[in-house]
Design brief:
Elements: E1 6-9, H1 11-24, E2 29-33, H2 35-39, H3 43-46, E3 55-58, H4 61-69, E4 76-78, H5 87-94, E5 97-100, H6 103-111, E6 118-123, H7 135-147, E7 151-157, H8 170-180, E8 187-190, H9 192-198, E9 212-215, E10 240-252, E11 257-258, E12 264-265, E13 270-275, E14 292-295, E15 298-303, E16 311-314, E17 326-332, E18 338-339, H10 341-347, H11 352-357, E19 365-367
Parallel strand pairs: 1-19, 2-3, 2-9, 3-4, 4-5, 5-6, 6-7, 7-8, 8-9
Antiparallel strand pairs: 1-10, 10-13, 10-17, 11-12, 13-16, 14-15, 14-17, 15-16, 17-18
C-alpha cells in the first residue's frame, strides 16, 4: 500500500474565503493571487473554486499561460511585470495586464511593436522598498506611460509593509494619496491584511478605498495578522490539510530519549507515536518539541527532532491511539477538529505561507470530497 501521508485541498473553503474577501471589500474587484503554484495548493486544483474572482494575479508567464489553458478569459495581472523585453510579446499574445515598477520596463514598452495597447499598473514605492518608483519619480513615469501608444489604461498601485501590525498603513497611504492626487486610473492598494483590517468603514483611517484588492493568503485560510488574530476570528477556513497516520508506537521509561541528538528526554513512562511525515514532505525540520498536531482529532504535540521521513508525537492525550491512527499535521481533522497552519508555523518560527509553499512533490495531493 502507498505511504499514508496525503494533502487535501478544500475547494469549498477556497470559495468561502473568497466570499469573505468580498464581504470586507464590497465595492472592490478582487484579484485571486495564485503565485507560487497557488501558494502550494496547485493552480489547477484551485482554479474552479476561485473562478468567481474578477481576475487572477500571478508571478510569471508560465502561470499566466496555465490559466489561459484552463479556460480563463478574464484579466490576469503579472505582479512583478516583465523580466525582459520579449515578455511583452507574451503579454500581447495572452492579453495580460502587468505591473510597471522601474524605468527599464517603460523603455521596453516604448520599443515594443504592439498591435493592441496594453493595460499596466504603475507601482509606487511608498515605503516597502522592494519594487516601485520613488515618490519623486512616479508622476514623470506616469506621464511617459500615458504618452505611449503601446499603453492603454494606466492604473496605480502600491504595497503596504505593515498592514498586518500596529504600525498600520497610515504613512504609506498618505504618501500614495499625495503623489497620485489628481491622476486618473483605478487604484490597487489592499493585500489580505489591508482588506481585513483597513477596508471596513470603522477601520483606522475611515476605511481604505481600493478599486482592486489583491487577496492572497486569506483565500487559502490563513490569517495575515496571526497571532493577533487567528483564522477563526476572520471566519476563514483552511484550504489545505496535511494528514498522515501513526506507523509505530514506542513505550518509553523515564530517562529514555527520542530521535537524533536525543533532544527529548522522557521524565516518566509514556507512549509516543511515530508519524509517516518528515522534512522531506515539507514539514518544517526546525519545529521543536511541543509543536501541535492532532491524533484522532485530539490535540497532541511533537517530541524530539523531525527527521527526513518521520516525526514523533506524545500520545498521552490519546491513550487509545495506535498504528493506523489518523494524524493531522495541519488543517481539518476528524469530525470538526481543526489545527491552524499558523499555529504550526509559529511553533517552527516561520509563517503559514512558507509551510503551504514548501509542500514536497512526493506528497500525494487530492481535492477533498467536501
Amino acid at each position: 500500500m502507498p505511504r499514508p501521508i496525503q494533502a487535501l485541498i478544500h475547494g469549498r473553503a477556497l470559495t468561502a474565503n473568497l466570499a469573505r474577501v468580498r464581504a470586507h471589500a464590497e465595492d472592490a474587484r478582487v484579484w485571486a493571487v495564485v503565485k507560487a503554484n497557488a501558494y502550494g495548493h496547485g493552480l489547477e486544483r484551485v482554479y474552479e473554486a476561485l473562478r468567481s474572482a474578477d481576475g487572477f494575479a500571478c508571478l510569471d508567464l508560465a502561470e499566466a499561460q496555465r490559466l489561459r489553458e484552463l479556460g480563463w478569459r478574464g484579466p490576469i495581472l503579472l505582479l512583478e511585470g516583465c523580466f525582459e523585453p520579449r515578455d511583452l510579446e507574451f503579454c500581447s499574445r495572452l492579453n495580460l495586464w502587468h505591473v510597471v515598477h522601474c524605468a527599464e520596463q517603460i523603455d521596453w514598452l516604448a520599443r515594443h511593436k504592439a498591435h493592441l495597447p496594453q493595460r499596466v499598473f504603475l507601482k509606487l514605492n511608498s515605503g516597502m522598498n522592494r519594487l516601485g518608483f520613488a515618490p519623486t519619480a512616479l508622476r514623470s513615469a506616469w506621464a511617459r506611460l500615458n504618452a505611449l501608444p503601446q499603453v492603454d489604461e494606466v492604473s496605480l498601485m502600491t504595497h503596504f509593509a505593515d498592514a498586518d501590525g500596529p504600525a498600520g498603513i497610515g504613512a504609506q497611504r498618505a504618501a500614495f494619496d499625495a503623489v497620485t492626487a489628481g491622476l486618473p486610473g483605478e487604484r490597487s492598494l489592499a493585500n489580505s491584511a489591508a482588506v481585513l483590517r483597513h477596508m471596513a468603514q470603522g477601520a483606522p483611517g475611515g476605511g481604505l478605498v481600493s478599486d482592486w484588492v489583491r487577496a492572497g493568503i486569506m483565500v487559502y485560510g490563513s490569517a495575515p495578522d496571526f497571532p493577533e488574530h487567528d483564522s477563526r476570528h476572520w471566519w476563514l477556513a483552511p484550504a489545505m490539510t496535511l494528514r498522515s497516520r501513526l506507523i509505530a508506537v514506542q513505550s518509553l521509561s523515564a530517562g529514555d530519549t527520542v530521535g537524533y541528538g536525543s533532544s527529548y528526554t522522557a521524565t516518566a513512562a509514556q507512549r509516543i507515536g511515530i508519524v509517516a511525515c518528515g522534512y522531506a514532505d515539507g514539514y518544517p525540520r526546525h519545529a521543536g518539541s511541543g509543536t501541535p498536531v492532532l491524533v484522532n482529532g485530539l490535540r497532541c504535540s511533537t517530541v524530539g527532532r523531525v527527521s527526513m521521513d518521520m516525526l514523533a508525537v506524545d500520545l498521552r492525550p490519546v491513550p487509545g491511539a495506535g498504528p493506523g491512527s489518523e494524524v493531522t499535521l495541519w488543517g481539518c481533522g476528524p469530525g470538526a477538529s481543526v489545527l491552524s497552519i499558523d499555529e504550526v508555523a509559529r511553533a517552527a518560527g516561520t509563517v503559514g505561507y512558507e509551510l503551504m509553499c514548501a509542500l514536497a512533490a512526493r506528497v500525494p495531493v487530492a481535492l477533498a470530497d467536501d
